[in-house]
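Summary for the lay section of the report: proteins are chains of building blocks that fold into shapes. Here we show the chain for Methyltransferase family protein and then a coded description of the shape we predicted for it.
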Amino acid sequence: MTALSTWRDLLASWAIPDTVHPPESPWVLPREVFLRRADRQIAAPIGATHRLAAEALQEPGTVLDIGAAAGAASLPLVGRSNVTAVTALDTDDELLAAFAERAAGVEHRLLSGRWPDLAKEAGQADVVVCGNVVYNVPDLAPFAAALTAAARRRVVVETAARHPLTELNPLWQRFHGIERPAGPTVEDCLAALAEVGIEPEVVEWRRPPEPEYAEFATAVDVVRRRLCLPADAAGEVERALLEMGVDPEMPPDLGSSGRDLVTLVWPGSA
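The coded shape description reads as follows.
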């Protein structure tokens, strides 16, 4: 089995078990988290992803943001680096609208859809950034190849060190008695990329604790849904989170992007 097929199989193992019947979709898109993260990053950028993208923008250049959400990866570069224009690509139109609100004052373009389906329409950019997307990409080879082909200077990919849903594994065991997958990890991603000739620079870093939701109750509800539990289980989920040491004043988005992060950087070929 190749590393690329292993990657695909590991992602497929996250399907909800047949014995579990979710009362509502567990695949939650936490828009509030993306909005709050973008606003924090725009106000005061942190992390290796920002630094490594900025390094490639000492000369004026354009940015293509894949999985842009509200702009946490690309918009902090505006005004701090020589960004002349930004293209944002995402599957969620509400988040793209939020991106546009935050991009006022810089030339920008919005593309609604998936990468690499819209690679031709997106065109080339000096720097291509892609934040917290790869664990949603079973077919990694064409995805990564299109990133490389789109970038004139540099590709900058941010990802959790381990599939972020693994943060919920103790709760799956507690509520369902089910052992969920332990990966994939960034090491699996790197092995898959190596099979297509990509050997990136790897920078590990940690996002500091932040209130990713305004209200602890919202975080509880998202975790409940991700655990495929009914609404009346919210109290039990809250107790479980508190017992895990979750600070209700600093609600994390468990299962989304994690705090242990890795930034991967490689040259573009455009």
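Put simply, here is one thing we learned. The first strand starts at residue 61 and ends at 66.
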